[in-house]
Amino acid sequence: QLTPVPNTGYHFTAWSGDAAGSAVPLSVTMNSNKNITAGFSINQYTVTVVPPVNGTVSLTPPGGTYDSNSVVQLTAHPNAGYHFGNWTGADVPSGHANDNPLSLTINANKTVTANFTINQFSLVITAANGTVTKVPDQVLYDSGSVVQLTPVPGTGYHFVGWSGDAGGSVVPLSVTMNGNKNITASFALLQYSINITAVNGSVVKIPDVPLYDSNSVVQLTPVPSTGYHFTGWSGDAGGTTVPLSV
């Protein structure tokens, strides 16, 4: 009686020579000298990757079916806007869930899952003499999301434009989050003109400039022509104060 005993990683396939078939055990009647061969083949196992979301997985070597004790390398490839997170499944070696690529020793059928996570980015706003409203207002934003920025000038200021990772002066500004962003909102002082009308005299302006910054003070002094005297202010001022601070 012959019983085949495969080595680890192999299995019995069939008898040949003075015997045939795959009976186990094999009973041989000794009616002459016998030469019998026991055939063994290496075990083969499959590697199954659960169809991933937001990415793909490649196997090296490819194929999906492998000899016992061979080593297969699994590489996770995230889609645009995503990054590899980890491997899950009972067949992921302990302590290697974050490896990419992941090496598997094939000693049984294996099933693994690759998990991908959406990228997130920060949006840093710099604004002096005003603020910027973010909608939505978050610390981090998912890749591909859109943030709307609206400048809010401080008192006496007006919005001038965007700089850094944005340009122009569109209000509101829509920012697509495809990376970390640093955007500056620039504000400038409002400026105003002062128009003086004077008949039979003139007015001295100190300082005498075409435009004045918001909240600056201009001093007006009337200068009568010969034979005239100053009587009072009208329009956007009143009274007879000399000099007049506007």
At a glance:
The chain is mainly beta and about 250 residues long. The chain has strands spanning about 10-15, 35-40, 45-50, 55-60, 65, 70-80, 80-90, 100-105, 110-120, 120-125, 130-135, 140, 145-155, 155-165, 175, 180-190, 190, 200-205, 210-215, 220-225, 245.
Record the SSE blueprint.
Blueprint: E1 10-17, E2 36-42, E3 44-50, E4 55-60, E5 65-67, E6 71-78, E7 82-88, E8 102-105, E9 110-118, E10 120-127, E11 130-135, E12 140-142, E13 146-153, E14 157-164, E15 173-176, E16 181-189, E17 191-192, E18 201-206, E19 212-213, E20 219-224, E21 244-245
Parallel strand pairs: 3-9, 10-16
Antiparallel strand pairs: 1-2, 3-5, 4-6, 6-8, 7-9, 10-12, 11-13, 13-15, 14-16, 17-19, 18-20, 20-21
Quick tags:
single chain, 246 residues, mainly beta, 4-stranded mixed β-sheet, 21 strands
What is the global morphology?
rod-shaped
Helical residues, percent: under 10%
Order of helices and strands: EEEEEEEEEEEEEEEEEEEEE
Strand line-up across the major sheet:
5-3-9-7
Describe this structure in words.
The protein is mainly beta and 246 residues long. Helix content is 0%, strand content 50%. The protein is built from no helices and 21 strands. The chain has strands at residues 10-17, 36-42, 44-50, 55-60, 65-67, 71-78, 82-88, 102-105, 110-118, 120-127, 130-135, 140-142, 146-153, 157-164, 173-176, 181-189, 191-192, 201-206, 212-213, 219-224, 244-245. The strands form seven sheets. Strands 5-3-9-7 form a four-stranded mixed sheet, with no helix packed on it. The termini are far apart.
